[in-house]
Amino acid sequence: MSAVTKWILGIFAAVIIGVVVDLLFSGSRMSKMIRCATATVTLVIIVMPLPSMIKSGFGAGETVFEYNPQTDDYFLSFVTDKKLKVLAGGVEEMLEKEGISGASVTIDAETDGDEINIVQVFINLSNSVIDENLQHINKNELATDKTVEYLGVDESRIVVYG
Amino acid sequence: MMKTKIAFILILFLSFALLFSGTGESFVYAEETDGGQTQQTSAEELIEEIDLSGLEEYFATLNDNQKSLFGTSLYDYLKKIVNGDFEFGYSSFFTYMLSTLGVSLAEILPMLISIIAVSVLISFIGGMKGSFASQSVDGIVNFAGIALVSAIVLLQVFSAIRDTSALVMTLKTQMEAVFPVLFTLMTALGASGSIAIYQPAVAVLAFSVTELVSAIALPMLIITIVFSVVGNLSSATKLGGMAKFFVSAAKWILYTSFFLFLAFLSVQGITAAVYDNISVRTAKFALSKYVPVIGGYLSEGFNVILAGTVLIKNAVGLTAVIIMFVSVVPVLFKVIAVSLSLKLAGALTEPFEGGKVCGLLGSVSSSVNLLVAVILGMVFLYFVFLILIIASGNLVL
User: Fold this and answer.
1) What is the greatest pairwise CA distance in chain B?
2) pTM for this model (two decimals)
3) CB-based contact (8 Å) between A22 and chain B?
């Protein structure tokens, strides 16, 4: 039985006993004293638990700062992969505009919250076709230079093969 | 009571505004363009990957009546919203509300009849006693009658308090299921500013506010009701003043806490939304620091992902609002029915008894109104929170 329930039952018990005694002694000289005693006892029962309640306090503060809703890391990595595929697609489109069509790009990245940091860019030129006007140019170098310019990453992070 | 009526009307208005919104540039439905199929595919693809197990677990605890409003499983319902096939069943919702109201009225009818019967009996016996009985007997009969009425009233009122306490825990469970999903989606959008603000606010709402209600407001209400009953039981112990004090204290604590939390949330939420709309647009165009490309394949590709994420976020938020209302309506109607029936009982017994029973019913009814304020306050806070999150990140599209 909770403390509140016990307290409420105590109040009711005091009042009912007081009323019954008052009814038994109603009209007598003692009735005023009995009423006064009943009121005092009821008041004491009401006030009794307050000091211990104030001492113990209300423990809501600690749990607030422990609460940390967990995000779905699997979903976040899925979305990041999709964004990286879009970015890779952007690089492929850029290379096509620069005269190298059919290149296949893959990007490896690390995420820090919602920020994406590119670790490595892999450009597969095995199935690519270079524009006629650019036949004299080294397509690996062209792809690397354009990707460096496009993504703003260091040349060392770009791997061109095929 | 006036303030609770205003809060109730405001919530109803905002709910209908939310449900009717979605014309023109809807933030819920996918636009019907050439890229519409790609957009829908992307959103469906994303919805398959997100973990909704917490929300599904809660959804499974709803009763058949509540589940029938959705018509399908939670996943299918979200997909319908994302694909633009969502149609809110107004008629089924109103049917649900009416059936809930009917159940509440059926529950309190026996109480009403019992109270009237006891009052009539007290009046009848009081009239009959004549010279056969002394004042003591009259006192005993009155005391027995009031004690019986008190027991009947307390049973109903404590049942309403228990349901309210259970509802507060239910809302807390819903928050714990919904907010991780919404925060995940907001992180995917790049709305880091909003998350930094909303995360502690969720903790305050889910823990401190619910603790305030269950550990302070509801016990104070119980104390108030006990004092009202005890004060009417015995003429020797007058506790009307104490009852009024506790009700006023509970009201002040609740209203002040709700107002402060709401004010803080609204100001911070608007600031966060503006900050994130800028940062998400920047991220869309610049991928934080890499790609200074505006327009073209890249930003269109990003738009598809962001649009899909926003659609799912709004769908989850809208579903959470509907689940909240479906959980709250039965308890709210029950509490309102109890409060009104106590007033009605007091009005009907006045010609017969006209004294302590009337006073008892009137004071308990006023105390029960605090339960309505508690429910509406919690619902309003949760509702505003969901609206702010739904609104966050929508302007990036």
Assistant:
1) 102
2) 0.81
3) yes
User: Half-sphere exposure (CA, 13 Å, Cβ side) for B212?
Assistant: 24
Which residues touch B132 (CB under 8 Å, ≥6 apart)? none
Q: Is B78 inside any structural domain?
A: no
Domain ranges of chain A: 3-66, 73-161
Between A and B, how many residue pairs show a Cβ–Cβ distance under 8 A?
152
Helix, strand, coil shares, percent, chain B, to 5 = 85, 0, 15
Residue B184 distance to chain A (closest CA, Å): 5
Q: Which residues of A touch B176 (CB under 8 A)?
A: 69
Question: Could you say which of A12, A23, A67 has the minimum Cβ distance to residue B140?
Answer: A23
B264 contact A CB<8A: no
> In which domain, by residue range, is B345 found?
34-70+88-396
How many angstroms separate the CA atoms of B234 and B236, rounded?
A: 5
Residues 277-296 of B with CB under 8 A from A: 283, 287-293, 296
In whole angstroms, give the CA distance from residue B120 to residue B145.
10
Render pLDDT for B184-218 as a digit per residue (tens, 0 to 9): 998 888 777 777 778 788 878 778 888 888 888 88
Has residue B278 been placed in a domain?
yes
Say yes or no for a CB contact (<8 Å) between B291 and A79. no
Question: Which ipTM value was assigned to this complex?
Answer: 0.75
Contact assessment for residue A105 and residue A141, using Cβ atoms and an 8 Å cutoff: no
Lowest mean pLDDT among A14-18, A93-97, A130-134, B126-130: B126-130
Q: Which CATH number fits domain A73-161: 1.20.120, 3.30.300, 3.30.70, 3.90.1530?
A: 3.30.300
Q: Give domain status of residue B135, yes or no.
A: yes
Distance CA B305, CA B368 (A): 49
CA distance B14 to B310: 21
Instruction: Yes or no: say if B334 and B107 are a contact pair by the CB < 8 Å rule.
Output: yes
Interface of B with A in 197-236 (CB under 8 A): 199-200, 202-204, 206-208, 211-212, 215-216, 219, 222, 226, 230, 233-234, 236
Question: β-strands A129-130, A115-124: how paired?
Answer: unpaired
